[in-house]
Amino acid sequence: MPSSGRVFLLVASVIIHTLLVYSGETSLGAVCSTDNDRLDSASHKFLSDCDDTTFCSASVNGTCQPRLCRRDEFPFGFTNFTSLPPLCQNGTFCPDEGSGCKPLWTVGSACQMDRDDQCAPPPNWADLASNQNFNGSLCLKSTCTFANMSLGQPCILDGVTYIDLGPNGEQFSNTVTRHNCQTSQLYCDTSLQVCVPTKSLGASCGSDQECRSFNCGPGGVCVDPPETPRRVEAWQVALTSLSIITAMAVTVVMLTLVHKRLRLQRYREIREYYEEQISLRKSLSVLHAAAADRYLDEKRHFD
Questions:
Q1: pTM exceeds 0.85 for this model
Q2: How many helices (H) and strands (E) does the chain have?
Q3: Domain extent listing, the chain
Q4: Which of 34-48, 73-87, 234-248 has the highest average model confidence (pLDDT)?
């Protein structure tokens, strides 16, 4: 091969390697095993031998291949220089590893942690759907179930603790407890393990699931969630309206008084001007008459 051809292949390989590294696909084609798929013990994030843009193809002699699907609109790990895998259609889901769209699992089937969207909805999903499940379906303890337990029925509790590290290495934990009672009317009592009614605003609580608002405040009482629009009391509306009307009335009265005072001042200036003109005219008339009389006297004297 000519030296120019070898140089071209060398430059091309360097450019391709640089683009792959820049795009984050450094593990593409690397040897892997699905036996090493796991969840992070603190954040419960899915981890494998591959990076965030690839998945492991097999447990034996596997290699990292480009992901075939995604579950988020903007998935983590991809850049503007890489093409995104497609989103899954209705009736299918994309697993954590991104190995391709799969049909929804039926109730009782195994599912990945907290992936409610992997479970098929019940026939009456419209009556059970809420912001605490996915179309009435739940993935509790890695098993698909329905959020259809009614008052007094036994329920399943699934608590997961997420741990995050602060800037100085300190740990912050957040425990999320989920259940298969009908929300938001019921919750699963931790001691009785049965569905009981949720609590109204102001009632004492120990976790968010106990409140109908799904927000247990710092004081241990149920409060409105942060996104709730602020309610304005009737007396506040009346007082605000009265203040606005009073301010407008005072402004109008003050403007009227100021305008009246300015008109009166202008009237006085005009009257003084005319009085001065009249006085000056009278003075001129007196001078003119005196001059005429003097002229007549002198004329008689010379005559």
A1: no
A2: 3, 13
A3: 1-86, 149-227
A4: 234-248
